[in-house]
Queue: 2 jobs
Job 1
Amino acid sequence: MVSRTTDDYQDMVTAGCAAVCEPAFWAGYDRSGVQGFHDYFCQLTDYEPKRAAKFGLPHYTWLCINPKESEDVNLAEEVIGIIPQFIDKPNVLGIGEIGLNKNSRNEMKVLEMHVDLAARTNSLILVHTPHLEDKLKGTRLILDVLRSDKRIRPERCIIDHVEEHTVGMVLDAGFWAGMTLYPESKCSPARAIDIIENYANERLWMNSACDWGVSVPLAVPRTALEMRRRGHNPEFIDKMIYQNPARFMGQCPKFKLPV
Amino acid sequence: MTRQQVLDLYFMESRFKLVEIAAFLDRVDRGDGKADFRLDAFRKGMKELGGKKPGRAKKVLLAFSDPTKKPIAKAHGKGACGAWPGK
């Protein structure tokens, strides 16, 4: 949300969003050093929740160095080193979005470092899976890393941006699966509902991409409308867009929804 | 949903997308020079549309995917182009 306008917050509240959950993300350019991440983490844990609160929207976040900046292992070590300064902030739910981008050896090392940090701090984990042609391989590699660390409990990890060719392996391994709704890539609302209808799983959720690229903050409410067009009942829609995410994030005691 | 309901909801949108794909392929044909691996992957994906069994979306995605298992030595750049170059 750091790259969005206040109009988006207003629209989200108007559409019935109860909370916003923002992972640490690539800025669209590489930050020049650890200080840039320090400032970004301050923004995510201090300024942005205040901005969202002006619209009555609770703001939660996840911290990491995004996989797109993980090729530089030395920088990643420095950034991971400052995360403990922020991990106890009231709106931090866990470590994310970690994962892979181009499936390189250095990205794997940084992923393992993040997983270790999450295990040591007993944090929830949000995982980014690679885009397009790299997603299948990246998802397999990510599952290998998570399963090889015996401290990691799958029910406390969500593997995000799944599509038809990766959702099955994620759910079969016991993890949560997230579908990111994007107008141009990843999952469309119609395909996300297809996946829900095919898997109808307790560990599935949807999220709207709200970044600096072409993205639609109201993608989840619009998908709820699409579910209504298909004849899904209100209870099932509520489960998919509200109860399931709340159940996953509620594993962090800091996550509270407005009564 | 019944098949009739699915058609009522999605036929026009899917018809539009199919014509867009046909026009895209015509546009590629009209272009000069050689195509690259992306067009091969696209044609491989299109073959899956004619299949009789469900799971077509998954099969199309697999047609574009890197099937290898080991991490690459180094990431050169950040972007993805949508199809695996095959090396």
Note: The interface with chain B takes residues 26, 68, 71, 101-108, 130-137, 140-141, 163-165, 190-191, 194, 229-231 of chain A (CB under 8 Å).
Job 2
Amino acid sequence: MTPLDWTRHPPALTPGYFSSLTRSPREGLIPLDPTEAELTGPVFGTQDIGEMDADLIHNAASPDAMAIGPRILVHGRVLDETGRGVPDALLEIWQANAGGRYRHARDGYLAPLDPDFSGFGRVLTDEDGGYRFDTVMPGAYPFPNGPNAWRPAHIHFSVFGWAFAQRLVTQMYFEGDPMIRHCPIVATLPSAEAVDALTARYDPDHDRPMDARAFRFDIVLRGRRATPMET
Amino acid sequence: MNVSRPQTPSQTAGPFLHIGMIPSTNTLIQPLPPGEPITLHGTIFDAEAAPVTDALIEMWHPEAGWVRSATDGEGAWQLAATRPATAPFVNLWIIARGINTPLQTRLYFPDTDWQSDPAMAHIPEARHATLVASQATTGAYRLDIRLGGEAETVFFDLKGEDT
């Protein structure tokens, strides 16, 4: 296992993102040597994926209905730091609808709910680490962080690799979105390169013509799988 | 080690993580390993001692299984797992709005020789107690987690093996 790369991950305290002020440890992290309890993790499989989980356009829609919004597909690979694909990685996905509203009791934004969209998705990577899901482009929305703060369009990801030490929670943004450079949460990232790594690229080679635009987002987990010993 | 790809950065899970991680149907469940059933519970507090009502906590140990719990309106969480047969601890992992990179900690069982666990050697003695659960009733252990302020919980940064 490799250490977390703190030139890539945001620090706990980021005063421009107000919620971090009371939720950021100040004592400093204690170094921990990895043990079996961090180098192993839960194992997920196809039994954990519902038939419609990777189709957010239809998975909460009434029969013959569809989610409202620009149709997109998101695809990419989950890799380790040597660039090898991570098979059977579980991705949990959640997002706002096309108007920027979450189907959540605590979201009071005035944009309407879409009765045919929940924003829930789940997908397992294939043998090469590849994944793909269909959804609608999420909308930007305001959030309480000073007089006027907006989130760029984004999709939340939770990722399980093979080790609990690899657990990752992140957000994917969209190439060309002018909201990215104004967002206090994006600004928690330590470098422009880190922002770039979370920005999905429009990928016309994988569009479904007359149907959906494709965006590509690769996810790199810390570490590498041990090479089997040669005997 | 031949590193060619930099790690994908973390971002906060935000306040609506339940949509993806605690869906009302199709809940993610792992079978628990055989052994003594236990429950772990506690409250997550912020640096001002206010309960954190929109957090998610996951527990993992190969001898204990994998489970997760969202905190409720009082900041409380509860997990049903298996008592590790040999280890004095389980790993805990916490995310929430305002947590930029997930927080990694441990729950140590009070009725073990937790003092001799190698991780304790790196922790000031005055902070040990933040990691040691109390036994509420038989098989039920309580650990409160404080993200900051007085008696801030110990959080870990996992190091590399040979770097």
Note: Helices of chain B lie at 18-21.
